[in-house]
Design goal:
Elements (H helix, E strand, L loop, with lengths): L9 H10 L9 E13 L4 E13 L3 E5 L6 H8 L7 E10 L2 E2 L5 H7 L4 E4 L3 H4 L6 H12 L1 H31 L6 H16 L7 H15 L5 H5 L8 H13 L5 E5 L7 H18 L2 E6 L2 H7 L2 E6 L2 E7 H6 L4 H8 L48 E5 L2 E4 L15
Parallel strand pairs: 3-8, 3-9, 6-7, 7-8
Antiparallel strand pairs: 1-2, 1-4, 4-5, 9-10, 10-12, 11-12
Length: 414
Amino acid sequence: MDVTIEKETSAEVDEKNQNDSIITRNSENLLEIKNLKTNFYTEEGIVKAVDGVSFNMSRNEILGLVGETGCGKSVTALSILRLVRPPGKIIDGSITFDGVNLLDLTEGQMREYRGKDITMIFQDPLNSLNPILQIGRQISEVFLLHQQEELHEILDQRRLDRDKEKQEIEELEEELKTNKTRLTKEEKSEIEAKIKKLKANRTKKLTLKEIAWEKSENIIKEVGIADAKGILSRYPHELSGGMRQRVMISMGLSCNPKLLIADEPTTALDVTIQAQILDLMKILKKKFRTSILLITHDLGIIAELCERVAVMYSGTIVEYASAEKLFKNPHHPYTKGLIGSIPSVEKRDQELLTIRGMVPNLIYPPSGCRFHPRCDYRLEICDSVRPANIEVGDKHYVACHLFDPEYKNSPKYQ
């Protein structure tokens, strides 16, 4: 993929410095995204799908990326994997994964990361799986692509075991032949029984594909599918939605990746199956120590699963904090609107909050703060100046002029 970094203006440099404020560089960070910009060049104009996004992920954590449909969540995920297709293009920023800027890699080097160190679960498992290939073949392909060395080690060990078994059988047969007259009837029977048992249990001669199939069966068991062997021989259309999603998760975890990106993993599932998939992700996260970037518009899922949350609106991050702080004390007007619109028992006698207006057109986004046309707390400065990321608490950042000492006393918009 062609990655173009355009020359920066002084305003863009200031904006980049503002975005850098939420990046905390340390060895615990697995992923650091800094001032990421991804545009789509269409006939109608340039769609600024991701416009200056910055956040980081620690090792072995679940980070939620939440926002309305069309706010740029999935494009952010595809940008991390460098799978943005034309007319889309990453035009600026850096994506540092485990100390390496992915945007500096060639396409061949990037393929080494995809599927091995970084994997992605898409929201529609039926469209993500190949309809004409058996499930086992699709999972085993991951092992054959990314774990050749490990598969060869297993194959070499199996061959050694097979040679040892063959040698032991030959030695017992030789003993039976040379000491035929000296052996008692019981000793002969005992040796013959050993030979019979060794021949029956002798390690099967395997190929790399068969070992990959075995590993596929094991990983399918990890995601809670009982009939793992039977599932491998089936095709995607023969499985339920929940089963297909479990298969996608097993494929994502097959190489024990450092980062798993889950893009709306429960959207097409009913409530019962959603709960099972979320519980499964919690268990697998602990077992495999995999960091998870969970993309969703469902704040209930975020509250249950995530440790930290980045709230996205119109291609930008507007608030970034721990899940506990975000739900207890949201700061950005957009975040307040999202949380206030969730129905609950406590609000059964109250009207739910609504966010007026519509999501802006990303070809012609609003100037200044992108949320200002819909904001009830709008200041005059919001129309012209883009808000910086302000730290309002310990690792709690919000992009809003209401919390900026420089602009918080600006006149309210009339």
